[in-house]
From TrEMBL:
Low complexity composition-biased segments: 60-82
Molecular function GO terms recorded: ferric iron binding; oxidoreductase activity, acting on single donors with incorporation of molecular oxygen, incorporation of two atoms of oxygen
Alphabetical list of PANTHER family matching this protein: INTRADIOL RING-CLEAVAGE DIOXYGENASES DOMAIN-CONTAINING PROTEIN-RELATED (PTHR34315:SF1), PTHR34315
CDD domains xrefs: intradiol_dioxygenase_like
Pfam families named in the record: Dioxygenase_C
Name of protein: Dioxygenase-like protein
Ranges where the Intradiol ring-cleavage dioxygenases domain occurs: 120-198
Sequence segments annotated as region (Disordered): 55-103
Amino acid sequence: MTDRLRTYEGRVLPKQDEEVVDQGLQFDLTTLSRRRALKVFGFGAGTAVLAACGSGGDSTGASTSNATDSSGSAATSSASLSEIPDETAGPYPGDGSNGPDILQESGVVRRDIRSSIGSARGTAQGVPMTLELTVLDMADSGAAFKNAAVYAWHCDRDGNYSMYSSGVENENYLRGVQIADADGKVTFTSIFPACYSGRWPHIHFEVYPDQDAITDSSKVIATSQVALPKNVCDAVYATSGYERSVTNLAQLSLDSDNVFGDDGGKSQIATATGSPSVGYQVALTVPVDTRTAPSGGGTGR
């Protein structure tokens, strides 16, 4: 992918043209805190420690473009943050804006979204995946967006969307809501989605200001998508049940995708660790700005 951002220990460098030791006080202090170095070296040793450590990289093999440290903790300053791009909700949102509405269902606030709720009984099969999104409030200096509600949904192993696609119209699996904790984090237990014809593998999500707002899709703060790393997709799609995804992915690139193609999805590519045998942990930091009018949603792909 073009224009890959330089990172240090999983964090995007705020000054892309400068060396690691010249990234500024806030970056230095965050690095020192992560290593617990302040207890040993004292405040004045920050630059020396950084110089001795040299430049690191992303150990997951997936591109990283979010300001998080290796523990997943969100940065406390919005200076280096960019608002998550607004994207289409696609034709299968299930939020009431285009037909079915799972957000009115009892039990929609849940961590495990692999099975349907209500009268539906289906369970989606596939390689296990845990999705962690960290929501930051740019209007509050990049602080964790505690109590924000995140609705996430994606296709199944066959590329079908519950509530819409033929054969699964009566299911509502792979859809659910989580409420951000004190660190702005939400976590979903799911399965790795397919690559269907014409779209890079992705996960949809909407951010609402709080749980009470989720029953009204007009109150959404941000609508976006998570792009899944190619190396992880290749590994998953080599397993049984994902055969069609191999052919579909071979015909696509992030640069040609009609959603991520404007910038190669550089701020939407998740980090991922794991393996097909044990599952993957997928993570993305999601800076949102309540001072800007949402421009996403709609029924594109």
